[in-house]
Amino acid sequence: MATIFYSLSGEGRGHATRVRAVVEELRNHHKIVIYAPGHAYELLQPVYKGTNVTVRHIPGLVFHYKDCPSTGRRQLDTIKTGMQGLNYIAGYAALSKRIQEDIEKETPDLVITDFEPALPRVARQVGIPFISLDHQHFLLVSDLSKLPADLQRHAFFMAQIVRGYYRGQVQTVVSSFYFPPLKTKAKDVSQIGVLLRTEVLQAKPVHGDHIVVYLRRFGSPEVLKALEACGCEMRIYGLGVQPSKGSLKFCAIDMHRFIEDLATCRALISTAGNQLIGEALYLEKPVLAMPEYGNHEQRINGHFLREAGAGMTVSMEQISPLYTRYFIEHCETFRAKIDREQIYGNSTALKIINQYLPGAA
Hints:
The protein is of the alpha/beta class. It contains 16 helices and 15 strands. Helix 4 packs across helix 5 (about 120-125) and helix 7 packs across helix 12.
């Protein structure tokens, strides 16, 4: 039995979902210690409380956003984000010392990180091999020259941020629902599909009539109007429980109910996060992706979704009944383009990890 230390970013549900998928593949054979900040800790700690998986809270880099009711947009709160970043930097030495003490005491055989900088940097200093397993590194290792010019520029600048997080990994594993060509200089890089949690893998796809909608905390009147215009039942997650408005049904966040609704729906309309799009495509659901305002990574995800033919993308500022109706009417055409087997990345991730554990051939 090996000991694995695993760290992740606290931003969004995608990081926690990926980590949980991998941990479930490993936990019966190895000791797992997870280092999780913020929202990721809140999601994972209850899941593994009282089990053989340890979840430890750490501070993390977090982007804060604020809602602007006048525009219907969420935008970066630069002041709050900057202050939190300064606090993180001020406490970085203490965090590194704490992690190093854990490493010296528990002697992990391998470190894995999902876009978290502290654990891999300490691992490199003390000579523990580590694997980078995330989505964000596609920005650094992929040839994105076929993107529109403005997205190429944004991808270039975001790649510099990714580059600054850590270096020295024995393997870079990029988990994604799309597979752009790698740069010629990209070394020790593996592209795999989406890491799928057990509940998604066990779900049985059924092509029903309702549409699942996922929005992150804010839905403008224009978005809700475009959804209602479709005339079919919309089960909306992320906006909290509130009275139904015609065909719009507002649901509380519940993992089991959400996956059941996703598995039995006709299609998904959501923000353009890699993880959720990948889960929907695995369950054979076409996707109408609405990148959040100012989120260029989501815009890139939407571009590749459209290129694959498995759905559509339109910004939240441009969404209208015209787009939603067209999407619903052409769901079967989009569904025919979905390659379900290519989306599944769990087995390949496990194979890569096992190569770096004791006893590997």
